[in-house]
Amino acid sequence: MLVPRVIAGSVLVKVALCAIPLSISPVQNASKPLLESFVSYSIEFSSFPDFAGNSSQPNTFSYNLLTNLRDLQGSYPIIRVGGNTEDYATFNESQTVALVGSFDFSRSRDYPTTISIGPEYFDSYSTWPGVTYIHGFSMGKNGSAGYDTLVGTVPLVCKALGTSKVAYWELGNEPDLFKTSSQGPVRPSWWNETDYVEEWLNKTRIIRQLVQQNCPDVITSGKFKFYAPNFAGTSNSLNLITTWNAGLNADNDIAFIDSHNYIGGATQPGVTLQGTLMNHTSTVLSINKHLNESRLLAYTGLPYILGETNSLYNEGAPGLSNAFGAALWGVDFNLYCAATGIARVHMHQGTNYRYQSWQPIDTVNATRGTKAPYYGNIMVAAFLGNLTAGNVSIADVELGSTYQNAYAAYVDGRLERIAVIQLNAYNSTVNGRGIVPAATTKPRPTETFSFQLPAGQTSALKGLHVQRLLANGSDAITGITFDGVSYNLELDGGKPVTLNNVTRGEVLRAAQDGTISVTLPWSSAAILNLQW
Ligand SMILES: *[C@@H]1O[C@H](CO)[C@@H](O)[C@H](O)[C@H]1NC(C)=O
Ligand SMILES: *[C@@H]1O[C@H](CO)[C@@H](O)[C@H](O)[C@H]1NC(C)=O
Ligand SMILES: *[C@@H]1O[C@H](CO)[C@@H](O)[C@H](O)[C@H]1NC(C)=O
Ligand SMILES: *[C@@H]1O[C@H](CO)[C@@H](O)[C@H](O)[C@H]1NC(C)=O
Ligand SMILES: *[C@@H]1O[C@H](CO)[C@@H](O)[C@H](O)[C@H]1NC(C)=O
Ligand SMILES: *[C@@H]1O[C@H](CO)[C@@H](O)[C@H](O)[C@H]1NC(C)=O
Ligand SMILES: *[C@@H]1O[C@H](CO)[C@@H](O)[C@H](O)[C@H]1NC(C)=O
Ligand SMILES: *[C@@H]1O[C@H](CO)[C@@H](O)[C@H](O)[C@H]1NC(C)=O
Ligand SMILES: *[C@@H]1O[C@H](CO)[C@@H](O)[C@H](O)[C@H]1NC(C)=O
Ligand SMILES: *[C@@H]1O[C@H](CO)[C@@H](O)[C@H](O)[C@H]1NC(C)=O
Ligand SMILES: *[C@@H]1O[C@H](CO)[C@@H](O)[C@H](O)[C@H]1NC(C)=O
Ligand SMILES: *[C@@H]1O[C@H](CO)[C@@H](O)[C@H](O)[C@H]1NC(C)=O
């Protein structure tokens, strides 16, 4: 493990609004060097053909958005194809279309709950060169439907992915909800960790045997490793630690301990942008449950990741999960994860989902386009930088506040970037309802953050430039930019376009005593880049 040489030393943070300088002791709890593809995605199984297209009509808009992230973090996001619908899908060898789904609005208005896939489904794995995948196999369906689907699809998956496109393997989405699912339980009430482990081992051994027969090089190249157990959370009907103790990793084929996380629910009473998402305290509490669990499993030496996560479960809430405030939440959430040792974060999305980073196709429910949360993903990737080029570790510069936080990025042991996130909600329209306020409305408040570098070090600082994540307010769902760049579909198909009507290229100077000050409008974020 590389221990960063902490140049920031004692970082003094002055929150000018309340004029109380906070003394923050030297950062000694920076993360280990991050693994590549920290910014990754999870795509709903039933939506994957929409997102990827197929070999005759690849979805190049999606690919452009993924390539932007590759250009920042050095490798493509890893795509996990899964979610609730991975356990609903059955396989029909003679079906000519990729996916046939039917909705049951009493179970979900957002995705089909009866799904049949044909061999063409796997053609969608051919559209994004350089991208690697985790295909989520069904575990929920018991009996012959589940067994036939597993046996029918493993050879197709391993041939479609091969050694160059397979990242990891997954069996079953959120089995800790199988007995209690509000969409209908799929296991009896007596089904416990021992039963789950026995079934998981049985079925992963079947998968392994089929891969051995059909794609032996996947096994010999060491690419038969799982994300497991893909639990929904830390307090459901199966316990992760018990599961581990019951022998989940008996075959030594698990590469990452995988849990899922949502901050709250889309229709949970009392959920608001400010109180639930633009709230650093709520993010800290949500992640801490996982940190507790990961500490108990630290002895395994395996990294702990969030294989599916986003703001509000049940696909997000309009006005909350699709607003700029959710993009700011996403920055704080992901950087807090990075700083505390969560090794990778797969942001979940599906067609029409409110929390999606982008809508891949036009539907009656949503317009194809880049959505606010994507800009948060971009800022996270920009802050982490090229993870394949050097050792990047992230430190939480805890401001002890619900409405602000900051992070430091150390590259090969040296402070290179500071991220600042200002989370006070600011509506650009009257009560977020799209009515533009009168000119008399009070101006958008700002807040000044000051960081103190050790005075002796500032002469070595050659440059200091700012990149900002901006929109008209936390309620904005369009007009979002990062560093003056738009990734909107209508400009250049999702490729970066520098706008000439947004300020960029801002340069700061450190004061003689090593103080750096930056002023942020409420509901915005910034990266300070230090050139030594
Ligand atoms: C990231 O770093 C690697 C290794 O130095 C380099 O080959 C690659 O071109 C870099 N990627 C980007 C997007 O800068
Ligand atoms: C499988 O697909 C074929 C072709 O669409 C269809 O005729 C058949 O009924 C399907 N089988 C099942 C079990 O649904
Ligand atoms: C490929 O995608 C196009 C566009 O969505 C669709 O019309 C076509 O049916 C798909 N091909 C197959 C074999 O599913
Ligand atoms: C199989 O699934 C059904 C629900 O789909 C459930 O009623 C039954 O108990 C399950 N059986 C086992 C052995 O898990
Ligand atoms: C699961 O239930 C079986 C049968 O009651 C029992 O033998 C086993 O100890 C239980 N496992 C756990 C982890 O509680
Ligand atoms: C696992 O496989 C064994 C041996 O084939 C079988 O007896 C057992 O019922 C299976 N258990 C489950 C949960 O599928
Ligand atoms: C922020 O989240 C915490 C923890 O959930 C909660 O106690 C607090 O009330 C929230 N703050 C606001 C302003 O809603
Ligand atoms: C994490 O564990 C600590 C120590 O056991 C406990 O005090 C804390 O409440 C736990 N936090 C969460 C969020 O579960
Ligand atoms: C999507 O649009 C259809 C048709 O207007 C509607 O029935 C359905 O409820 C909408 N779904 C959601 C999640 O709003
Ligand atoms: C890291 O250390 C700083 C300074 O001691 C502290 O304020 C912060 O809470 C710590 N962060 C974590 C995630 O432990
Ligand atoms: C912004 O508008 C929303 C939606 O009407 C409202 O709930 C919220 O209180 C407003 N926030 C602020 C900071 O005015
Ligand atoms: C800035 O330019 C973009 C792209 O041309 C445009 O969509 C947007 O409305 C402009 N914003 C303002 C505030 O004029």
Automatic annotation (TrEMBL):
Name all Beta-glucuronidase C-terminal domain ranges. Answer: 406-527
Q: Does the keyword Secreted apply?
A: no
Range of residues in the leader sequence = 1-18
- Keywords assigned: Signal
- Could you name the domain of life of the organism this protein comes from? Eukaryota
* Pfam families in the cross-refs: Glyco_hydro_79C
What is the name of the protein in this document? Beta-glucuronidase C-terminal domain-containing protein
Species: Cladophialophora yegresii CBS 114405
Q: What is the lineage of its organism?
A: Eukaryota, Fungi, Dikarya, Ascomycota, Pezizomycotina
